[in-house]
Design a protein that fits this description.
single chain; alpha/beta; Serine Threonine Protein Phosphatase 5, Tetratricopeptide repeat; 2 domains; 7-stranded mixed β-sheet; two-stranded parallel ribbon; 9 strands; about 50% helix; about 10% strand; TPR-like_helical_dom_sf
Length: about 400
């Protein structure tokens, strides 16, 4: 048996639809008493058109009439109709639709300058309520260009400038308007506010400049202190700097080169704390320091390690009475630990004397501070992991 065609399916559906009304009445059908009256309301079946068409009573007929006779209207009439339409949308707070109507009105290119100025001003108001301040300002400017004494456009231009924090521009708009209408209260209020906020913005700018200068001076003082100590800073990957300094280089040349182009964020820690090296009132440096425990994939971060403190001072606190939960075998006792730093150029490890100060280690010619944070590897002396980790690596002990 052949499958039914699409036409047959449609016929079956229509038959079912019509069959249904043998048992139930169609709810929206015309009654026998009013069908002629209802037909008379349909434009296609009207015997005579009403003398005046009320869009509320005859919306379909008004729409058809508008389409038929639109070409007969002048550009001014079309633009004015679209302006009224936009105003209706604006009253209903349908600002996007209002923008569309005003835009279409402007596209009619009518010669009525005042009407075009109103269209621009009204579109500026709609843009303003949508938060499109730049577009609103452009429309207010266009309206004022067409009609220099258009106070509404001038007020809107001042308001947009205020929202854009362009206080000098707002003052200019207000002054132009007040020359035309000195008693305009809205412009007087806007000017007073713009003048106040302009002075506040200038004050804040001066404060920011002083603060930036202070930070710059602090940065230069800090960098000078680091350079004076002979500490090398790295702001690039080790591979990019490999071979830049000779083995017997005292570090001054490398430090000078790094410090010359080092920015403040170059000595800021990349840790989540955002801690960075600082100098206290006594001229002592305090560094953020990272301890790495490769055996357990753990780390410790000290935000302010005084350069004069020894490593044992911190390890004794970190691994004192309360050991970390990841040290289940209780191996990380201060007396059992070894500390190393890695030479970023050679890849060699240097073992640190735990009794030495941080400054003493950082001053070593093969030690470099990367990303503003000195880092050290911590191992348990003689442990199987330590032996495996150090195997194949060149390890030197600091003198």
């Amino acid at each position: 048996m052949a499958a039914p065609t699409q036409g047959e399916d449609s016929d079956d559906a229509m038959d079912e639809f019509m069959e249904k009304f043998k048992t139930q009445k169609y709810k929206n059908a015309f009654s026998e008493s009013n069908w002629e009256e209802e037909f008379e309301k349909v434009p296609m079946f009207m015997k005579t058109a009403p003398e005046s068409i009320d869009p509320e009573k005859h919306p379909d007929l008004a729409c058809i009439q508008s389409i038929i006779h639109d070409d007969d209207r002048t550009p001014e009439e079309k633009a004015r109709g679209l302006k009224d339409e936009g105003n209706d949308y604006f009253k209903e707070k349908k600002y996007k639709k209002a923008v569309v109507s005003y835009t279409e009105g402007l596209k009619k290119n009518c010669t009525d300058i005042e009407l075009n100025a109103i269209l621009y001003t009204n579109r500026a108001a709609a843009h303003f309520h949508l938060g499109n301040m730049r577009s609103a300002l452009n429309d207010a400017t266009a309206a004022k260009k067409l009609k220099p004494d258009h106070i509404k456009a001038i007020i809107r231009g001042a308001q947009c400038s205020m929202e854009l924090h362009n206080y000098p521009g707002a003052l200019q708009w207000c002054d132009e308007g007040l020359r035309l209408l000195p008693t305009e209260k809205k412009l007087q209020e806007l000017r007073a506010t713009a003048d106040k906020q302009k002075r506040e913005a200038e004050r804040d700018a001066r404060k920011a400049k002083v603060k930036a200068k202070k930070q710059q001076n602090e940065k230069e003082t800090l960098l000078a202190a680091i350079k004076e100590r002979g500490i090398k800073l790295l702001k690039t990957e080790p591979s990019q700097r490999r071979g830049s300094d000779s083995e017997d280089d005292d570090g001054d040349r490398g430090a000078s080169r790094a410090l010359a182009d080092l920015e403040l964020d170059g000595i800021s820690s990349q840790e989540a704390t955002g801690a960075c090296v600082y100098m206290d009132e006594q001229g002592v440096l305090h560094w953020p320091v990272l301890f790495l425990y490769p055996e357990h994939s753990q780390t410790d971060f000290i935000s302010a390690f005084c350069e004069n403190s020894s490593f044992m001072d911190h390890l004794a606190v970190m691994f004192g009475e309360e050991l970390p939960p990841w040290d289940s075998e209780r191996k990380y006792q201060p007396q059992n630990l070894q500390l190393f730093f890695e030479d970023p150029e050679k890849g060699n490890l240097y073992q640190v004397d735990l009794e030495k100060s941080l400054l003493n280690v950082l001053q070593h010619q093969r030690c470099s501070v990367k990303a503003g944070t000195p880092s050290f590897i911590v191992l348990v002396s003689g442990s199987p992991f330590s032996k495996q980790f150090l195997s194949g690596k060149k390890v030197q002990r600091l003198k």
